[in-house]
Design brief:
The complex is a heterotrimer.
Chain A (H helix, E strand, L loop, with lengths): L1 H17 L1 H21 L3 H34 L2 H5 L6 H30 L6 H25 L6 H28 L4 H29 L3
Helix pairs in contact in A: 1-5, 2-3, 2-5, 3-5, 3-6, 3-7, 5-6, 5-8, 6-7, 6-8, 7-8
Chain B lengths: L1 E12 L2 E12 L2 E6 L6 H8 L7 E6 L2 E2 L10 E4 L11 H11 L8 H8 L13 H15 L3 E5 L7 H15 L3 E5 L3 H7 L2 E4 L3
Parallel strand pairs in B: 3-8, 3-9, 6-7, 7-8
Antiparallel strand pairs in B: 1-2, 1-4, 4-5
Helix pairs in contact in B: 2-4, 3-4, 4-5
Chain C lengths: L1 H7 L3 H23 L11 H30 L2 H33 L7 H22 L3 H28 L9 E2 L4 E2 L3 H39 L1
Antiparallel strand pairs in C: 1-2
Helix pairs in contact in C: 2-7, 3-4, 3-6, 3-7, 4-5, 4-6, 4-7, 5-6
The chains are: A mainly alpha, B alpha/beta, C mainly alpha.
Chain lengths: 221, 203, 230
């Protein structure tokens, strides 16, 4: 348990000192939003209708950049071997890396939420619901992305293969999260939105369990 | 007691066999040096012994147990690659601290700083500002702190100055008391000075 | 000399599965043409015999691929990896067949080849997952790494299938209610139609098993050749 936190905090510290990953993800988001804005705008109603989709598509793209960072720090520094040679079962490595990616994703998602609110007029009056949707969505995304990023870590084409692997499995997350966001934005009944949250929570639970159990077998060595 | 034991090990990458039928054992209290030209498989042999890659054929035993079964024992095993692996954005002491914590070892007050001073390093600088010799010294601090029973070293003497080499020799001598050391090197003189046994690998 | 011979002759079980499978398929076709047209859909319903059979065996193939992947991770026997890959490949072809059949049926029935409806969307996702599976296999050269990574994808992929299936119940849907409702144990068809469907299902399953054995054997010979030349 303690090692999970040590690993996640250490990676966050490295990421904030290096800054390269987080900054490029944020810049990338800005560019994606600009392009989508040009493509869908300038009619306010069109933008408002597209906002939930824009939010999650942009987050999925930025997430695939961040997912590469999860293990890149070990590969760049040659420290993956040290991590694999630590005593005990390797599940905690998965949880530590998951936690790292989860925090990064939530930070980016928060910035993104305000950007979409500003540029695409996404109403923020049900903000707590939106936060919950972001948390549930980011959990599912990070669960799958951490796992797949670990599988392809030493592959030279990792940055190409990873998005394909991650996007295909997280489609249900994106779908459900978009529906929940649409519901929140358009003032749907709480029960309807809650059913999407339940779906997201179920997905998160299933994939976190499966990925953490499989991870020690799948990581090399 | 035999701490490292390889029996009829075959390992290939893709179609290329790198290790063909290698058998080797290192007892506690013994230092074995691997010599041989580039590309003969010294690093691969070390990685197989470290359980980082699995051979296609043959058995590897560590601490008297099949390599696949060791678990808690990995805390007593240290493999140091060449060039040394550290997080560039962290300082020397942060690197050592993270390594100790992830190995599940307690971190005592002042212990890390003492280990760094013992190898002639001043705390505070990020590893990205280290020279390759300083990184080698930092790996020596890791050996001091982790006190491994099985120590696997890939070209530990490179990039070190005369003083650093003396430190390394003394340190390996210390690990040897009760532990086994297997190292790969190109330096015959160093091998003669440090090793009880030399193993020459041929292509 | 021994491996050369194996190349020319299949073992009796594989041969039997394929022969009986194709014969059953012919019978299935006969029953399908003999079955009465549907009250609402008319003769068009006949596409469904193939569509549903392909769908079921496709799912079966992906489940088998997942089970073999899990076995590989536990036992690390390369045979399981080969069988997993073989099953996933057949599953992918069957799924494509299912999608194609579905489109041919959908055009006259719904007026379009494709709708963005949950079950269709999730089937598209499933096909994409297994296409990605083969992309990944191509990208990794080291056999052990390839097998482990592929096993991870195959297992996560198979977890996705119940989510796919349940999506029919979780989302509101314009798709046909499943022809044989497992959850409520009801059969919504005329008895002749059920016979035709079951015979086709049996045929597809037998052919699938035959091809699985065949592809597994071919992959094993390929691996052996690679080892000898290396």
């Amino acid at each position: 348990m303690k090692r999970i936190l040590v690993l996640a905090l250490r990676d966050l510290r490295i990421e904030f000192r290096g800054r390269s990953g987080l900054l490029s993800a944020l810049f990338f988001l800005g560019v994606v939003l600009l392009i989508l804005g040009f493509a869908l705008g300038p009619e306010e109603n069109d933008l408002r209708r597209a906002a939930p989709g824009v939010l999650w598509v942009a987050l999925a793209f930025a997430g695939s950049l961040l997912a590469g960072r999860v293990w890149a720090v070990e590969v760049e520094n040659g420290t993956l071997d040290d991590l694999l040679l630590t005593p005990g079962s390797r599940e905690w490595i998965y949880w530590g890396k998951f936690l790292f990616l989860w925090v990064l994703l939530l930070l980016v998602a928060l910035v993104l939420l305000f950007m979409v609110a500003g540029m695409f007029y996404l109403p923020l009056d049900r903000a707590p619901g939106l936060f919950l949707t972001l948390i549930l969505g980011a959990t599912g995304y990070a669960a799958v992305a951490t796992f797949y990023a670990g599988i392809v870590v030493r592959l030279s084409t990792a940055q190409l293969v990873l998005p394909i692997l991650v996007f295909t499995v997280v489609v249900p997350v994106i779908l459900a999260a978009v529906r929940a966001t649409v519901g929140l934005a358009e003032g749907a009944a709480m029960a309807e939105v809650a059913s999407w949250w339940k779906f997201l929570a179920a997905f998160d639970l299933i994939y976190l369990t499966a990925c953490s159990l499989l991870f020690p077998f799948v990581i090399e060595g | 007691m035999t701490l490292i034991e390889l029996e009829n090990v075959w390992k290939r990458y893709g179609r290329e066999w790198v290790l063909r039928d290698i058998s080797l054992s290192v007892d506690a209290g013994e230092v074995v040096a691997l010599l041989g030209p580039n590309g003969v498989g010294k690093t691969t042999l070390l990685r197989v012994a470290a359980t980082l890659t699995r051979p296609q054929k043959g058995t590897v035993r560590l601490f008297g147990k099949p390599a696949r079964r060791i678990d808690a024992e990995r805390g007593e095993l240290l493999y140091l690659a060449n060039p040394p692996a550290f997080y560039r954005h962290l300082s020397g002491e942060e690197n050592l601290q993270s390594s100790l914590q992830l190995m599940g070892k307690p971190v005592l007050d002042g212990e890390i700083e003492a280990a760094m001073r013992a190898v002639g390093l001043a705390p505070g600088k990020p590893v990205s500002a280290y020279s390759s010799g300083m990184k080698k010294r930092l790996t020596m601090a890791r050996i001091r702190l982790l006190k491994p029973k099985v120590l696997l070293l890939d070209e530990p003497e490179t990039a070190l100055d005369a003083e650093g080499r003396e430190m390394l020799l003394a340190l390996i001598d210390e690990v040897k008391r009760g532990g086994a050391v297997l190292l790969a090197t190109h330096d015959r003189e160093f091998a003669r000075a440090v090793a009880d046994r030399e193993v020459v690998m041929r292509p | 000399m021994e491996p050369k011979r194996a190349k020319q002759r299949l073992d009796p079980l594989t041969q039997g599965l394929l022969w009986v499978g194709f014969l059953t398929l012919a019978a299935g076709l006969f029953f399908a043409l003999k079955a009465p047209p549907d009250v609402q859909q008319g003769y068009l319903v006949r596409i469904l015999y193939l569509h549903v059979a392909a769908a079921w065996t496709g799912y079966l193939a992906f489940i088998v691929a997942g089970v073999y992947a899990l076995l590989y991770l536990v036992r690390e026997d390369p045979r399981f990896d080969r069988l997993s890959a073989a099953s996933a490949e057949i599953g992918l072809w069957l799924s494509l067949l299912m999608v194609l059949g579905g489109m041919m049926w959908a055009r006259p029935t719904w007026g379009v080849y494709w709708v963005w409806e949950p079950r269709l969307t999730s089937v598209a996702v499933m096909v994409a997952i297994y296409a990605a599976y083969f992309l990944l296999r191509q990208a990794i050269e080291d056999p052990e790494m390839r097998a482990k990574a592929a096993a991870g994808v195959a297992i996560l992929g198979v977890i996705n299938i119940p989510i796919t299936y349940m999506s029919v119940y979780w989302w509101r849907s314009i798709h046909q209610t499943a022809s044989i409702d497992i959850i409520n144990r009801r059969v919504n068809m005329a008895p002749e139609m059920v016979t035709a469907l079951l015979v086709n299902l049996l045929a597809f399953t037998l052919i699938y098993l035959g091809f699985l054995r065949l592809k597994g054997m071919l992959a094993e010979m390929g691996a052996r050749e690679e080892e000898q030349s290396g």
